[in-house]
Amino acid sequence: MIHLFEPAKQPGAPIFLLLHGTGGTERDLIGLVPLLHPDAGYLSVRGEVTENGMPRFFKRLAEGVFDEADLALRTERLITFLHESSETHGFSVNQLIPVGYSNGANIAANMMFENRLFEQAILLHPMVPRRGVTLPESAEVRIFIGAGSNDPICPASETEELARLFEQAGAELEVIWSHHGHQLVMPTIEAAASWLAKQ
Ligand code: MLT
What one GO molecular function would you report for this record (predicted)? Predict the structure, then answer.
């Protein structure tokens, strides 16, 4: 998979798994890394699917309607890639902290629906990736969700449902709302950095 990797600057510092939104690339979220943690490294991946030339992590049938077969396939491929990268670069997959925006947050959430892979995650403007799933037991998993109260693409009801599903599985959630639609705004990133520092 097309990706960029940068090791952490200090042992024990986070390695963020950066997952961009629709139409983004592996370069998009790199600027967030030092804002979230000064010593963090990253593994930033480009989605393998393209929709009218725009990279994504899985196909959709319409806006907000996901191709579940493709989602399952791409989730499995991404997890395999994470395991391969962990061997190549010498980290363990559960050290990764996904930082996903929109479509990238959705595949991060879907990885977490399937496996107890990560201990922490930052999901920015996510949706419920799939319904009718039993989530893995997620006690001691911490999740930060940054959402938009007036986001037309990832409606607030989706965020609330996603948070509820993770909470029912035992995860500790922090949900921060902004009022700028689907945009990623600095107060959300600052809130994510403080949440990360609180661990
Ligand atoms: C999706 O996965 O389709 C999103 O949540 C919306 C988008 O990325 O445009």
Answer: hydrolase activity
